[in-house]
């Protein structure tokens, strides 16, 4: 695995984003209600570019659910809500979704491998892969169909970018970037 | 046999509109599907279908007219289609119509994928969703 992929400084990345390109930026506890509010906002904001807007919405739903489900960071009070970062940027030619959350370090190789696998497939192969995953037994671990990432790649029509930073012996921070071309 | 009707609702979750008619065998799921408990929702539909198949044993016309559904729902929809395919294999009269929003290749592709998964013949139609 490339070293560069494992030493990503999310904080630095975050400070370098042009403020006026940010459509959505949230870091904190996640709940179903919050995600629903954010997704509603996205639909409103992207109303004009119907096709791309719908893709961004649909990807946001999958990725935000993933963060909600998989994040290993949670508040130690209240409802012990999961914590994560969700961003959507407007980069002129495309929209970009960025999500970040804590994961177990032991899961890093599996996640990197999954991303590489998805990126190595052309559309038809990806669809076949999705069918195979979807038809299989549903995994205890994933509340969803376990195909969120594959569907994200299909919907976006682009490669996924994954960056990781190992934090200590047990944890790493995982960031996912997905681009959706604007359709004018 | 009772009909099954579920009112579509949009809130924190998106509940699709469901109308399953036991007297005509006409069934429709429309709207958006993103649920708190996807399995429970669709198992309800599957149970109804299995009862219909057992007790009424007549033709079934199943119309899908969804404008959005998450991957969890996509798995459950496959389960519904499997029930329909089994009925067809057992001699049942089954028609499946898949309506997809115009310009939404993703949803159109789902039907193609479902056809490959189940071996069902699914009629595909484009439609213009209300905004």
Uncertain stretches of 5 or more adjacent residues of chain A: none
Shape of chain B: globular
How are the strands ordered across the major sheet of chain B?
1-4-5-6-7-8
Work out the number of β strands of chain A: 5
Largest sheet of chain B: 6 strands, mixed
Please report the total strand number of chain B as a whole number: 8
Listing every helix as H and every strand as E from the N terminus to the C terminus, the arrangement of chain B reads EEEEEHEHEHE
For the report, how would you describe the main beta sheet of chain A?
5 strands, antiparallel
- Roughly how many Å apart are the termini of chain B? 35 Å
Helix content of chain A: 40-55%
Regarding quaternary structure, what we see is heterodimer
Task: Give your account of this protein's structure.
The complex is a heterodimer of chains A (184) and B (131). By secondary structure, chain A is α+β, with helices and mostly antiparallel strands. Helices cover 41% and strands 26% of the residues of chain A. Chain A has a five-stranded antiparallel sheet with strand order 1-2-3-5-4, with helices on one face. In chain A, strand 4 and strand 5 form a beta hairpin. Chain A is globular, with a radius of gyration of 16 Å. Chain B has 131 residues and is of the alpha/beta class. Chain B contains three helices and eight strands, in the order βββββαβαβαβ. Chain B has a six-stranded mixed sheet, with helices on one face. The termini of chain B are far apart. The relative contact order of chain B is 0.15. The interface between A and B is medium-sized, with 26 and 19 residues.
Q: Can you describe this structure in just a few lines?
A:
With 184 residues, chain A is of the alpha+beta class.
Throw out a few tags for this protein.
heterodimer; A: 184 residues; 6 helices; B: 131 residues; alpha/beta; two-stranded antiparallel ribbon; 39% helix; 33% strand
């Amino acid at each position: 695995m490339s070293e560069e992929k494992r030493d990503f400084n999310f904080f630095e990345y975050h400070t370098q984003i042009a403020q006026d390109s940010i459509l959505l930026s949230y870091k904190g506890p996640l709940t179903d209600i919050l995600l629903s509010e954010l997704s509603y906002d996205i639909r409103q904001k992207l109303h004009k570019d119907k096709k791309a807007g719908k893709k961004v919405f649909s990807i946001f739903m999958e990725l935000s659910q993933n963060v909600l489900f998989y994040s290993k960071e949670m508040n130690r009070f209240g409802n012990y809500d999961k914590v994560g970062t969700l961003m959507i940027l407007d980069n002129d030619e495309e929209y970009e979704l960025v999500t970040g959350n804590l994961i177990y370090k032991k899961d890093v190789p599996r996640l990197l491998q999954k991303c590489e696998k998805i990126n190595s497939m052309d559309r038809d192969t990806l669809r076949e892969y999705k069918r195979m995953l979807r038809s299989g037994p549903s995994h205890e671990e994933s509340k969803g169909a376990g195909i969120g990432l594959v569907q994200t790649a299909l919907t976006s029509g682009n490669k996924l970018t994954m960056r990781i930073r190992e934090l200590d012996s047990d944890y790493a921070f995982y960031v996912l970037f997905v681009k959706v071309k604007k359709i004018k | 046999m009772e009909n099954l009707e579920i009112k579509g609702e949009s809130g924190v979750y998106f509940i699709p509109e469901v109308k399953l008619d036991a007297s005509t065998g006409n069934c429709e799921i429309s709207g958006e599907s993103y649920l708190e408990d996807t399995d429970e929702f669709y198992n309800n539909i599957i149970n109804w279908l299995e009862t219909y198949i057992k007790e009424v044993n007549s033709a079934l016309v199943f119309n899908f007219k969804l404008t959005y559904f998450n991957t969890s729902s996509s798995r459950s929809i496959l389960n519904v289609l499997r029930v329909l395919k089994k009925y067809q294999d057992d001699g049942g009269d089954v028609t499946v119509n898949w309506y997809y929003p115009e310009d939404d290749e993703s949803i159109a592709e789902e039907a193609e994928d479902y056809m490959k998964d189940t071996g069902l013949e699914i009629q595909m139609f484009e439609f213009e969703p209300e905004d």
